[in-house]
Amino acid sequence: LVAPEYFDKLAPCLEAVCDEIDQWPAPVPGQTLNLPVVGVVLQVHIPSRADKPESSSLKQCGQESLLPAPLVLTSVHELDLFRCLQPVLTHLQTLWELMLLGEPLVVLAPSPAVSSEMVLALTSCLQPLRFCCDYRPYFTIHDSEFKEFTTRTQAPPNVVLGVTNPFFIKTLQHWPHILRVGEPKMSGGLPKQVKLKKPSRLKTLDTKPGLYTEYTAHLRRDKALLKRLLKGLQKKRPAGVLTALLRRHLLELTQSFIIPLEHYMASLMPLQKSITPWKTPPQIRPFHQDDFLCSLEHAGPQLTCILKGDWLGLYRRFFKSPHFDGWYRQRRKEMARKLEALHLETICEANVETWMQGKSEVEVVDLVLKLREKLVRGSHPAQPGPG
């Protein structure tokens, strides 16, 4: 939107755009905002925790008045997930696990466009789990972290790198996972799938497409998914339908993995009846990995996912990943906020006068100061983030 106007009107255009953006309202989860810019109004729905990840943004807007729009995107950057992942569909399970575990991965592609789309497609595979690692859709030798990422004196960082320069095959040869892909092609059937190869098969020159890794997936791949996608291709189903099918599969897979963690985490919350008005609320119990793993026998992902395999092994590796750390910190922060709110609620319902009877002046003043501090803290809650 902005670039064509800029080349036509130069600096004054940027000033006008900045002025318009400066007038935009603050984003509020659950609301739909009208954002004017260069003569166009962008209608943006800010997601909230109540929104379902797979639902259309139109449905989530509910009764809000929608502007007539020539184009509706579910996100700012709408990926054709099926087209992006076509050459690696047979290894989708392995790649999903590598993303889940935050493993260092290099994507070597023939062009910046293919590199960027593949990296963005892979990092979006974990939705609704937030991707907590670094990723570079298009990385070059001129980037400031070039030395840091290519050094062999330390383990590769938890980054997904998209590159096009074959020079990286040599400089990043020590990275544990390298995905070499060609140009994506849409045809009547699935394109030739990249093969799983040992890293030792990497050649500096003329490296063939493939996933070069020693990693073995913990879960078996879903052959039924491949059959459905192939059938859709043969029947010439729209790409959007195949992308929706693929995204739903990944969403359900991630949810099946996360739901047991959510249930266990919820069990660590103190009972509401243990929260009393005049005492510090009880602490959230610590997360014990062994206890969680024991709970999987009767409340594990097998209840919602048909995939067989070593779920326990996958969880054990997940505990060491940046994604577990990111998920746990966020959930604990939310639970602490909830605990604080419940404590405030209990205080509001309590009879202060009854408590004051027989208490010394020092105790009463101390209580008043604590209540004031708690009320001030409660009146300025952290802005809840999107789901």
Automatic annotation (TrEMBL):
Which parts of the chain are coiled coil?
Answer: none
GO molecular function term, any single one: guanyl-nucleotide exchange factor activity
Task: Output the InterPro entries linked to this UniProt entry.
Answer: DENND6, Tripartite_DENN
Q: Record's superkingdom? A: Eukaryota
PROSITE patterns, from UniProt?
DENN
All copies of the UDENN domain together span 1-334
CC annotations in GO: recycling endosome
Q: Which family does it belong to?
A: Belongs to the DENND6 family.
Full protein name: UDENN domain-containing protein
> Species name for this entry?
Desmodus rotundus (Vampire bat)
